[in-house]
Write a structure and sequence with these properties.
The chain has eight helices and eleven strands. The protein is of the alpha/beta class. Strands 1, 2, 3, 4, 5, 6, 7, 8, 9, 10 and 11 form an eleven-stranded mixed β-sheet that branches. A hairpin with a 2-residue loop joins β8 and β9. α2 packs across α3.
Length: 320
């Protein structure tokens, strides 16, 4: 056991070295985007201003949550990269009916949203068939045009687009639901394939902060074995799995080292799922940053990824 513990620590150190050495695929970013969701991010004035624009329904003096964090980080990254100029071609993978789609559409050249709409476990909520027929009716911003938003029914593991079709590809809290590790690797590879050289991808998923205790882990392993693999779906990544199944599988490069530090304040309103319901220390949903489900503690993690611009290649994606 002692030898195994030493081997695990050595592997963890090697992984941190890998994640901490980002090979730059573009000029350095001013803000940290490859990081964990943190309540401290909401104290930044620029972050807070953009969050207020995206979520006017929330009181940002206290109502912090992971979804608002995802939207805001993506919007700030696109702004910093100069992609909110009315020309960029973007793809949202596992798009659902996310509010960010409707906010982005009038600010870029074309936005394609793909999901298995009307099918699967999220058909009745996050990915309704109505997105295919009347997406505008689902927009939380009735004054914004959806003319540049195209919604398509498509499996993330097999994207029906040519290579290097988009200036930006993003996927927000979806890739962990795409199936077993092999399915996730296929989807990550597709994200990398359709991104143009010089383009950026922003992938948000869920990262384990603390594993379940050994007895619970043993029960979970037994359940997966008894299910014949049906319970092998990935929903929360370890750092090792995130590196292997998303970053490496995409063929893209981190634009900056991944920061896995968090403020202690982010844990103050820990949400624990019991019997299908979330319970918090305060009794309120917000702030909603860290969760514990089946003994596993986790939060959102953002990955800013890119592909190097090759000499002689156009700086923008060509039409498909």
């Amino acid at each position: 056991p002692r030898r195994l513990r030493r081997a695990r620590r050595a592997r963890a150190r090697a992984l941190r070295d890998t994640l901490g050495t980002a090979r730059t695929a573009a000029p350095a970013l001013r803000r940290r985007y490859s990081k964990l969701c943190d309540v401290a991010d909401f104290a930044d004035p620029a972050f807070r201003a953009r969050a207020a624009e995206l979520r006017p329904d929330l009181d940002l003096d206290w109502a912090f949550d992971r979804k608002t964090w995802e939207f805001t980080m993506l919007a700030l990254l696109l702004e910093e990269r100069g992609l909110l100029d009315g020309r960029a071609r973007m793809l949202s993978v596992g798009a659902g009916r996310e509010a960010i789609l409707f906010w982005l559409a009038p600010r870029i050249g074309r936005l394609v949203a793909v999901d298995i709409y009307g099918r699967g476990e999220f058909a009745g909520s996050e990915a309704p068939a109505a997105m295919l027929d009347d997406a505008a009716s689902l927009s939380p911003y009735p004054d914004l045009s959806t003319e540049r938003l195209e919604v398509r029914n498509m499996d993330a593991r097999s994207l029906d687009f040519g290579d290097a079709s988009f200036d930006c590809v993003f996927s927000l809290s979806s890739i962990e639901h795409f199936g077993a590790p092999g399915d996730i690797r296929r989807a990550a590879a597709e994200i990398g394939r359709v991104l143009r050289p010089g383009g950026i991808a922003y992938v948000v998923s869920e990262l384990q902060l603390r594993a379940a205790r050994p007895p619970r882990r043993a029960l979970q392993a037994a359940a997966r074995a008894a299910s014949g693999g049906r319970l092998s779906r990935r929903e929360v990544f370890t750092e090792t799995a995130l590196e292997r199944d998303v970053i490496e599988a995409s063929g893209l490069e981190l634009l900056q080292p991944l920061d896995t530090t968090m403020s202690e304040a982010s844990f103050d309103n820990l949400a624990v799922r019991r019997f299908g319901r979330l319970h918090t220390r305060s009794g309120r949903f917000h702030p909603h940053i860290v969760l514990r489900v089946r003994g596993e503690t986790f939060t959102s993690v953002g990955l800013a990824l890119g592909r190097r611009l090759e000499p002689g290649r156009p700086a923008r994606a060509t039409a498909t």
